[in-house]
Amino acid sequence: MKFLHLTEAGSTNDEVRLLAEKGELGPLWLRADSQSGGRGRHGRRWTSPFGNLYASGLFPLSKVPLAGAHLGFAASLAIADTISAYAPLARISLKWPNDVLLDGAKISGILLETGRSRGQFWVIVGIGLNLITHPADTPYPSTHLLEHIAKADLDGPESVFTGADGVMVVLAARFDYWRSIYEAQGFAALRGPWLERAQGLGETASIRLAERSFTAKLMGLGENGELQVEYDNGTVESIYAGDVFPAPAPTGETNVIGN
Question: For residues 91 and 75, what is the distance between their CA atoms, to the nearest angstrom?
Fold first, then answer.
């Protein structure tokens, strides 16, 4: 595994895309101390101050076209494992399609981008993880890791938290673990562990698609990671792209910090 580091980047995803377009196929991770043009899903701005983790991985795809999306679930599980390594008592949940929540507040997001260079498909897995700060002016609650690490683990002679470099090592190892499981066993091997941490299964949620918004009960995942919802009349529908909220979504932008 190759690790690259930049003091500042416009966007780590953009930096990695440039490498891919020049023929680099990975696997690699590129981390930046800060971003001036970080973005999340749908082009939403992702605030990127110094001290949090902003990283993008580049990986060749052996299974297309769904493998890129499937690795988003691997990334969610890797982030959850990483948080647990620092805050083992934390209540971590996963929100479809690719948000990680800690005590119900967003701590991380994932941005997936795919492409092809010289006949080889690849995926960029962009991850933003709040370590030492989080924004206070977001429409939905957000948090950061240091708020959830036990004080004794921070103040001892060897603090468990040493900054973004240390977190990156743990995250990369956990992602490699889940990616190897996916490569060997397929998406079904990710689906069960993801559902074990899924937020709001069996509960009614607000769902926002590009063309409409509605409420429905969250039922689970389909065989390729699509969200399955049930309406009041018992009809079940599969959702392939959209945003899910545990309560009716407020008006305006739904962005929180991200990559």
Answer: 18
Spatial distance between the Cα atoms of 133 and 189, rounded to a whole number of angstroms: 33
* Residue 90 C-beta-side C-alpha neighbours within 13 Å: 28
Backbone angles phi, psi at 116, to 5 degrees: -145, 130
* HSE-CB of 213 using CA atoms within 13 angstroms: 11
| Mean pLDDT, the chain cut into blocks of 10 residues (259 residues total) | 92 94 93 76 59 95 79 97 95 93 93 90 95 83 93 83 93 98 94 95 90 92 94 93 70 37
Q: Is residue 183 part of a domain?
A: yes
**45 located within any domain:** yes
What's the rounded Cα separation, in Å, for the pair 232 and 198? 21
212 with 130, same domain: the answer is no
Q: Which domain holds residue 232?
A: 204-245
pTM score, two decimals?
0.88
Residue that the structure tokens 């959209």 belong to: 242
Q: Report the distance separating Cα 160 and Cα 98, nearest Å.
A: 26
